[in-house]
Design goal:
Number of strands: 7
Distance between the termini: 17 Å
Low-confidence stretches: none
Mean pLDDT: 91
Structural class: alpha+beta
Shape: globular
Radius of gyration: 14 Å
Strand order of the largest sheet: 6-5-4-3-7
Length: 147
């Protein structure tokens, strides 16, 4: 892993145990999966790239838009093939193929990722088949990608 990839993994690990809080983005206080990514972004780059509007827990179902995927494309660039995923990459998940991406995490090893999980807190989870088949996209943080 590169130094930046190691830093992203270390930052993600430093959030483990942060309580789950819908719309939260503060380490050790509370965050959701989007807040975890926002916090890592702030640690890497200083500021968040854009304001995140308030969102309801069922935002992906109600909006009819794939806002998480759209934001990832704007901020991280084009998605990578799953076979190219490496530690430090952003993973987006969708619960069903016909649904918008609604969950995010950071790959920390080939078979583990860190994410904020409702009723659990920020945790390290095995990337078991039930999680892996729900991966909608893999993105590399800006400045860490070699094209």
């Amino acid at each position: 892993m590169s130094g930046v990839e190691n830093r992203i993994v270390a930052l993600a690990e430093s959030w483990i145990g942060t309580p789950y809080r819908h719309q939260g983005a503060t380490k050790d206080v509370g965050c959701d999966c989007i807040g975890l990514i926002r916090g890592i972004w702030r640690d890497l780059y200083g500021d968040e790239p854009e304001a995140v509007p308030a969102y309801a827990p069922d935002w992906a179902e109600r909006s009819g838009e794939d806002r998480l995927t759209d934001a990832a494309l704007r901020l991280f660039g084009k998605a990578l093939p799953l076979a190219e995923a490496r530690p430090g990459d952003l993973l987006l998940f969708r619960w069903r193929p016909d649904c918008a991406a609604k969950h995010a995490g950071i790959l920390v090893a080939p078979t583990y990722f860190i994410h904020a999980y409702e009723q659990v807190a920020v945790t390290r989870s095995a990337l078991v088949p039930s999680w892996k088949r729900r991966i909608a996209a893999v993105h590399r943080f800006p400045g860490t990608r070699i094209d």
